Amino acid sequence: MKMLSSTIKANTENLIPGNKVLGVAGSPRKNGNSDVLLKQVLKGVRMKSVESSFIQLRDIQFQGCIGCEKCRKDKICTGLNDGMSLTYNQIITSKGLVLVSPTHNYNITSWMKAFIDRLYCFYNFENTRPRAWSSQLADQDRKAVLVAVCEQSNKKDMGFTLEAMRVPIEALGYQVIGEQAIYRIFDKGKVKEDTESMEKAFLLGENLVKSLS
User: Fold this and answer.
1) Structurally, how many domains does the chain consist of?
2) Domain of 66?
3) How does pLDDT run across 39-72, given as a tens digit for each residue?
4) Cis bond before residue 168 (omega within 30° of 0)
5) pTM value?
6) 47 — phi, psi (to 5°)?
7) Are residues 17 and 92 in contact, defined by beta-carbon separation less than 8 angstroms?
8) What is the CATH number of the domain that holds 30?
9) C-alpha to C-alpha distances, 76 to 60, 89, 98, 166, nearest whole angstrom
10) Is 151 helix (H, G, I), strand (E, B) or coil?
11) CA distances in angstroms from 109 to 5, 28, 83, listed in the order given
12) What does the pLDDT look like over 100-159, one tens digit per residue?
């Protein structure tokens, strides 16, 4: 396990954030509305000739934070070795971040929650009570856009979906420069027919790139 921890640390040490964008989708449904919207945001990113990549959380095997606290010493998650371990270099080296999640039970999906929880390893804690903290990702001009999709018709039905992404991401040091809440969409890929929502998603990608310049 000690050798494994050293490998994970070595793969993420001395990485420098650049003007790249990482998209993360938290939907369990392949080619659903969240997938369509993520692709549309990244299309706007590519239109500005900026490198982008994406992660479909349903396609990687990983689990949520287990609270082992090894990251307080190692500055990266070494208590688990799974699909999430392979994403940290993308997170660190991409100043731009796109998070997309459908609403599940008034909140983000369990996949998106587990992903955000595994970003806990980027916090630095001091030995005070309560513990003072800072983020390794802060002060690096990191920017983010958030997209949430809800079958129902109003903000109350969407619940905490946007907030559950925004609050922890801002705490980590990202400036959220745009959000999109889409209502009354459920049928697979139906959002493609919503011209206004598709245009807004595209503009989110373009605006994200502009904010990184």
Assistant:
1) 1
2) 2-212
3) 999 999 999 999 999 999 999 999 999 999 999 9
4) no
5) 0.95
6) -60, -25
7) yes
8) 3.40.50.360
9) 19, 10, 21, 22
10) coil
11) 29, 8, 18
12) 999 999 999 999 999 999 999 999 999 888 889 999 999 999 999 999 999 999 999 999
